[in-house]
Amino acid sequence: MPKRKLFCEINPFFYRLSVIKQKSKRFFKDLFSRERIAKHHSCTLLPNTVKRHSSVLVRRLHNVDLSLQENKVTNILLAAERINGIVIRPGETFSFWKTVGKTTAKKGYKEGLVINRGKVSSGVGGGLCQMANMIHWLVLNSPLTVTELHHHSDALFPDERRRVPFGTGTSVHYNYVDYRFKNNTDQPVQILVHCENGELIGELKSEAPFPYYYELTEEDHHFKREGDSFYRNSKVWRTSFDAKNGTPVKKELILTNHSLVMYDHSLIPKEQIRE
Q: 46: Cβ–Cβ under 8 A, 6 or more apart, which residues?
């Protein structure tokens, strides 16, 4: 039996109404929350580098207007101004949207790539998922605790210079689809982000080294046909190592990917298809 559609999936009016409802729920939830949101920025950099990473800003995505990618760079630069240098003290929570704020044309944000109800479209401030992905990757390589994460459920594009395991990103949509993590350690951490030579560069800093470092690996990656569709499958593991001697301490499964391939199936590498 086909899955019954919700009202918000049938009519755009009901979808907009649903969005307003979700934004209102988030507003009141935050209003009465005891969560301490990080707000302090500092030009003084914490001395220890926990993790540093870079990602390509403009990628030639299949069937996507390149101008949306170029506009994304403007949006990321504006968001970086709000994020760069933020300090998350022990017990505080970092909120992507509390830090960046609402993205509007008045603030200089442009039409960029967004995912709307599982489909690629455009919207003011689009493309900021890449910034959220960057921060999430830094956090995954630290002892910080993710408290809100919204996985991309579908494989929307073929790989284009991917540097991290598939599925380790996060969706963000103002304000109710947020990305948050809490600093449950005994020392402050700091996020640095900037753009340079066509790349977004992120860095997580701390006062002193943590007792462990981390490595993320993707295993059993393959595509498989299910009916008329293909799914991208893999498992992502995180291994903790003792920082003093490099001995592996713990290996944990953090993600199982089973994502519907939304792009042209002819672009799937044949050697990666499992019958």
A: 87, 188, 189, 190, 205, 206, 207
Burial class for 274, CB neighbours closer than 10 Å (0-12, 13-18, 19+): exposed
3-class DSSP state of 34: coil
CA 106 to the chain's CA centroid: 25
The residue assigned the tokens 């592996």 is: 248
pLDDT at position 239 = 98
- What's the pLDDT score for residue 5? 54
In a domain, residue 102? The reply is yes
The answer to whether 112 and 70 have CB atoms below 8 angstroms apart is no
User: Average pLDDT per run of 10 along the chain, which is 275 residues long?
Assistant: 52 79 92 96 98 93 84 98 98 98 98 81 94 98 98 85 90 95 98 97 98 98 97 98 98 97 94 94
Predicted pLDDT of residue 1: 44
Q: 129-140 and 66-83 helices cross at what angle (nearest 10)? A: 50
**What domain range includes position 122?**
9-16+35-209
Listing from the earlier edge strand, what are the strands of the sheet with 199-206?
A: 48-56, 199-206, 189-196, 86-88
Instruction: Classify residue 29: in a domain, yes or no.
Output: no
Q: Which two tokens stand for residue 130?
A: 């890449």
| Residue 159 placed within a domain | yes
Report, in this order, helix, strand and coil percent for the chain, each rounded to 5: 25, 35, 40
Instruction: Compute the radius of gyration of the chain from its Cα atoms.
Output: 19
Do the domain assignments include residue 75?
yes
| Spatial separation of the C-alpha atoms in residues 57 and 121, rounded to whole Å | 18
How many domains is the chain partitioned into structurally? 1
